[in-house]
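Consider what follows.

. . .
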Amino acid sequence: MSLSQDVSSEIVSNAPQTSPSLQRFERQLGGHRKLLSINDGSMIVKPCNEIERDFYELSIIHPDFAKWMPKYYGYLRLQGFNSSILESQRECINEEQTADTSRQLWGDDASEEKRKKMIRKAEITTSGSLGLAVIAFQVFKNSSDSYINYDRVYGRSLTTDTVYSGFTNFFDADIPTKLRRLVIERFIEDLELLADALRKQDVRLFSASLLFAYEGDPDALSEALNKTKQENNQKLEECSQVKDAKEKDNWERKEVEDEEDEEDEEDENYEEDDEDEDSEFEEFKATDLRFIDFAHSYFREGVGEDENSLFGLNSIVKILSRLLDEIVKCD
């Protein structure tokens, strides 16, 4: 099968312009419909409704939140279904977990029957009490060069009392304790940054999920962390040199400029440049965290922050902080 088969000509310009082959995405953890991958697996093709497609396309004007979403390449019609073409977050990372992060599991488009069903589901699962529900995950075991899969049945079996053990199992890759601690610390930091971004959005993320991923091979993880450190040190040095040059240039300009308004404008531009430089410090992917699944989500001016999703994020931070404390005590 190729993209040229039963595909509408309405393909967004960012989508692949060739006709690469599609294969079944073998490492799908959750979801109701099967995912497909393109060529080397760096992109996936995911069936979507108009609500999800609109959400991805509107995310471009919400960059602070979009950075926590998979990169969107466009959409196509494949065998009668709308499908999004998305960046795969799983190209080089072994451990993956998806978790719903809201106490409200239905969207505004849900029927009254569906709402009642989802309210009941939240009441009897961790969604209602914690604002999160582990869906499924897999863990790479370097000792056997294989994955341990924890499927949806396992995810549904977790209760308020046992969900902590689910996160413990997720971080049970064959990696040294020191690296395990660093991985968890990164996720906590990212969750807090994500929460900060979410507080600034007029958005509703009904039944959206978080995808957690980290490198579970100890050698690859060490290499990724070392590369991150080297790249960041190099960028910091380059940034320092640029700042020194700017400071010298600004000082010389101030000696010859008399207009105070012009000086204020230069200061504003300087601060904006600093923010651009900081945004370039993207780490090599030893870990990755993304919001996914937006079939019932929307941006809408005036709705304010999504308190249900923030509640779920806070619950995950508490669980990971507890797990981190246990690791530190045992170290």
User: Anything to note?
Assistant: The chain is about 45% helix and 20% strand. Confidence is low (pLDDT under 50) at residues 1-13, 266-283.
